[in-house]
Amino acid sequence: MLRLPTIRAQFTEIADAAAREQMTYRGFLAELLMAECDDRARRRSERRIKAAAFPREKSLRAFDFDANPNLDPAVIHTLATCEWVKKG
Q: Structure pTM?
């Protein structure tokens, strides 16, 4: 009725971890709810990307640096962290 698919899927795993780590009931519940919220955010993002109808998914992980030998992969990955934006 509540439609909590992540809690249903990960309950046993999180319960076992909580027992091993001797978590309180409140901590156990927090872990379950955090897993549900994180998964919902991930699925929401996936739905939005799909709804945008981009031609295909692109990421730096899949980028072919061999296609352009003039690009330095280290520089690109450094820029991708966006630390330069934070530093101003």
A: 0.61
